[in-house]
Specification:
This protein has 10 helices and 13 strands. Strand 1, helix 1 and strand 2 form a beta-alpha-beta unit. Helix 6 packs across helix 8. The protein has a 7-stranded parallel beta sheet with strand order 3-2-1-4-5-6-11, sandwiched between helices. It is an alpha/beta fold. The protein has one domain: NAD(P)-binding Rossmann-like Domain (Rossmann fold, 3-Layer(aba) Sandwich). About 40% of the residues lie in helices and about 15% in strands.
Amino acid sequence: MGTILVTGAAGFIGAHLTRSLLARGESVVGLDNLNDYYDPALKQARLRWIAEGPGGDRFRFEKFDLSDKDAVLALVERETGMDRIVHLGAQAGVRYSLVNPFAYTAANVVGHLAVLEAARRAGGRIRHMVYASTSSVYGARSSGPFREDDRTTQPASLYAATKGAGELMSASYASLYGLPLTGLRFFTVYGPWGRPDMAYWLFTEAMLKGQPIRLFNWGQAQRDFTYVDDIVAGIVAVLDHAPPAATHRIYNIGNSQPEELLTLVALLEEFLGVRAIRQLEPPQPGDVPGTFADVSAMERDFGWRPHTPLREGLGHFVAWWRRTYG
């Protein structure tokens, strides 16, 4: 059994995935730059959570930036037992892309290319690379469900544009160099150990402090909230079924059950025992009115379906948040 490289291992999804892979006996090299997009202490805490979990002795952490192409190339070259890659490392967040656009080209374009090139130079040793894309590539559309063959040429944000560029680069590398590649378009992932810039976390903090919560698009936006355990199960299922050489596949991975933000707020009110102070605002630049994943391809090819309704998953998050932050 070879080693798996997980980029973004100190991130939200990366930490959950790494724990899952280690628990089933895999060896994992985790890569992350631990940047300050949000509090690095949370990322350090996730790394401790990984190390303390089942199989933590088979985890090794490397700290550097994906855009340091020489470091990425050297890592994959010297890890001769490495035979799979799950590339989750990226600069996330639609709104931050309006403030710091170059962080997105560095991580999501240069960094993605560095990982692809490292896989190519491994000379056939990498038998599958799975990478994270996003539902944001579908642009500002409200009709659904979104299908993998829908148009993705009108991104509503630079973040979406850089992730779309990653898909195009991956398609070219599969065709040119025979790499087996699978991209997964994630739909609004949430759960314990999540990201503090996400709505469910921001709302929880604000509501417990008696502060107003900002509901953009007058609170009418819909999101296909997907629980992190369902996402991890999907990643593992895909990773275990590599396509033939020179094949590039794309799959949606979401809950396939859009919910209004107001529904999220109502559930948080119930779980937290406080009333939210709603501050309704117009749409923000880069935001999309809704997301809705058609996951029939994931079910057809891997037998995967999401199992966690929003009420259950959000309850898990609130319980974790209370244990962690009181």
